[in-house]
Amino acid sequence: MDGNRRWAKERSLPSFEGHRKGYDKMKEVGDLCLKKGIKILTIYAFSTENWSRAKEEVSYLMDIFYKVVTNEIPVFNKKGIRLRIIGSREKLSDKLKTAISKAEEETKDNSKGILNLAINYGGRLEIVEAVKKAIRGGATADDIDEELITNNTWTAGQAEPDMIIRTSGEQRLSGFLTWQSVYSELYFVKAHWPDFSEADLDGAIEEFNKRNRRFGGN
Fold it and tell me: Which of 2, 116, 152, 200 is catalytic?
């Protein structure tokens, strides 16, 4: 969801306003995905590198995440959406960690869709943590294979992403779903995230349907 700060800067607004608009856009796009039959949506909300941003900005983002995992739960339950928070919880506040656990528990039986919210997420970190989890579960070096790592990632049990969309003209993955994205279709949009439209989403879906996905075959 790139471009919140750039969107705000172009309008001579504080970066906080860009993040607020980005939050509203996330809810809007989530509803669009559900309407169009997309069952799993993963949002890259905060990377492990984002801690280096200004303290005030980080604090504001954490307040947004807390709002998602508290105020939005009745909405998720009404729409049948299961909320999953993926990423390391080590640096998160106790207040946020408690709210996350409660939100995941309260939405775990919802079956119309899954929203993965990646907070304090890094693709390399996920792989490292998956291997550590496997070893703590008794795996030896000879046991480590792709299936074992997949089963210990933060998205274990879910389908791998068909398409990854990045906004604001950036054309790299920046550690997003590093393990899961090996055969994902990539789609890059020039619009900043707050300006991402239904037409942009439809364009991505149309492009996806045109592509020949051979998964390494002929």
Answer: 2
